[in-house]
Amino acid sequence: MRRSRLRHLGLAGLLVLGGLTAAGTLPASAADASSTSSSASSDREPASAGLLDAMQRDFGLSRAEAEDRLAAERDATGLEPVARRAAGTAFGGSWFDADAGELTVALTSDAAPSTVQAVRATGAQVRTVEHSARQLDAAKARVDRLDAPAGVSSWRVDHSANTVVVDVVKSERADNDVQNFLERAREAGPVTVRSVPSAPRTFAAGTVGGDPYYTGNVRCSIGFSVHGGFVTAGHCGRAGAGVSGWDRSYIGTFQGSSFPDNDYAWVSVGSGWWTVPVVLGWGTVSDQLVRGSNVAPVGASICRSGSTTHWHCGTVLAHNETVNYSDGSVVHQLTKTSVCAEPGDSGGSFISGDQAQGVTSGGWGNCSSGGETWFQPVNEILNRYGLTLHTA
Fold it and tell me: Where is the catalytic site (predicted)?
């Protein structure tokens, strides 16, 4: 799960609004994303403590063993191009042998003794193989031209096995289309088939309410998923602006945006991202499903999810309020709440039960001393752009 990463991003970008009067409120806007990055140190250690800790945890190494392995990998990385040149046309591939801590270079059986000696002189270990790297690459290129059915998950050159390995989903191994693909793949060259438990998927994320997104150096929060994208605050970006997600991968583009007078926008998504009818609970509560957008009355409880201060609740204080922000921006038809917010929470989700209410616009105060926050009603945004809320 990525929530610990999100929590870090949110808190690192935190800015305090401070206590302001109602007439001097500010858009919750935006935290400057540049505040989440730190300057690199010129005298940085070769390996960070975090990297060494991760290697100890994931590889079962001691700290000294982790340091030794990193040093051996650095040596192998520098050695590989030298050994490759020494191997010439007999080169069958190379790989780092973690157990031995050395680079291994494959050479075809017809390699001249002088070639073998030259490769060993570089410090690499030598293994004799049947097929050259060039032959394996050509075989894979031929497989690339085949149309693969869904049951075939991937294929690649494996130099240590001296073959092209084709991964097939175990449950689809007997499928006729899979068998036809494998038959044609074997005609392309040396192929080994491996079973895998499931098909691969991308690890880009769904657009989840409360998650952070970035426009340039500005961080805001996703409001609600709609079919084709998500809605958020207008002051977070103008139409045509590109948007990246919590992991800094590209999400999509602002398709419409209005601020001031209104404070709403919608972003189209693509590039492996998809819409999800969920609002983050940030571990305070379970993540909340969105089932509709019925308007909560004044006095009803309401909660907000945002990428800076996460999950907070309060009550609806007023509908259709006109707000005059301290920068002179006037926004109409906002709903007032007793929920706190801070910079970076802008655009995030207001939800009552399982009903979407709106996207965070701005407010006064903070989540330490309290305050009030306004949101742009979600139904107005849906009607303005002809969008359909993604519901469970």
Answer: 235 (charge relay system), 263 (charge relay system), 346 (charge relay system)
